[in-house]
Every structure is written in structure tokens, then in C-alpha cells.
Amino acid sequence: QVQLVESGGGLVQPGGSLRLSCAASGRRSNIYDMGWYRQGPGKQRELVAAITSGGNTRYEDSVKGRFTISRDNAKNTVSLQMNSLRPEDTAVYYCYGDPWGDGHFSWGQGTQVTVSS
């Protein structure tokens, strides 16, 4: 299994920036797919951004051009740089790891991001 620990998050004004980081540890040293989901108030959890160990990325449409996902395979970390934040980005953000790319996710504990003036 994979253990995931997130850092970052907090309160930011609209138009501001935040950076989320997630560190993975455990039996699996090379995690195929890592990324971030979020769950806003009264909403379903949705994929925000993901990146494979080969560097292939995918983004939810509303964050394209504003968010950038990156990872360090040697350190087993994944980061999400969030710029031009909007109130609708307010959510709990969850890091996930899918070691084999088969949909068996491990999850972090979640970190709150609040965008408000």
C-alpha cells in the first residue's frame, strides 16, 4: 500500500495562488499515476489533475491554463500549482496514488483550499 501526506492549502483571495504538495511512501516505490481530486460543498468528488510516471498529464477543463501538476519520481512527490484561483475552486483537495494504474487508489487525508475575499 501507499501512504500519502499532503501539505499546503489554506485561505487565499480570488486571483491568488497556492501550491499543494503530496509525499508518498510505502511498499511501492514507483507509483504509476498520481494526482489530485477535490470535493466542494455539496458537490461530488472530481478529478482536478493527474500525472503519470512518464509525465503524461490530464486536467479538468475548468483548471486548464490555471493549474499545473508536476511530480518528482525520485522523491515520490506530486505538486499542484494553482494560479488565478476562483471562489468555485474552494474545496477539500485530496492527493491520490494509483501504483499499478488499475484504479486501486490510495488517498491522502485532504487539505482545505478556500478562495474568498
Question: How would you describe this structure to a colleague?
Answer:
The protein is globular and about 40 Å long. The strands form two sheets. Strands 2, 4, 5, 6, 9, 10 and 11 form a seven-stranded mixed sheet that branches. Strands 1-3-8-7 form a four-stranded antiparallel sheet, with no helix packed on it. It starts with a strand and ends with a strand. A hairpin with a 4-residue loop joins β5 (about 45-50) and β6. With about 120 residues, the protein is an all-beta fold. It is about 0% helix and about 55% strand.
Q: What layout of secondary structure does this protein have?
A:
Elements: E1 2-7, E2 10-12, E3 18-26, E4 33-39, E5 46-52, E6 57-59, E7 67-72, E8 77-82, E9 91-98, E10 106-107, E11 111-115
Q: What's the short version?
A:
The protein is built from no helices and 11 strands. The protein has strands spanning 2-7, 10-12, 18-26, 33-39, 46-52, 57-59, 67-72, 77-82, 91-98, 106-107, 111-115.
Low-confidence stretches: none
Largest sheet: 7 strands, mixed
Helix content: under 10%
Structural class: mainly beta
Shape: globular
Spatial separation of the terminal alpha carbons: 40 Å
Q: Indicate the mean pLDDT.
A: 95
Quickly count the helices.
Answer: 0
Strand content: over 45%
Could you state the oligomeric state of the chains shown?
single chain
Strand runs, count: 11
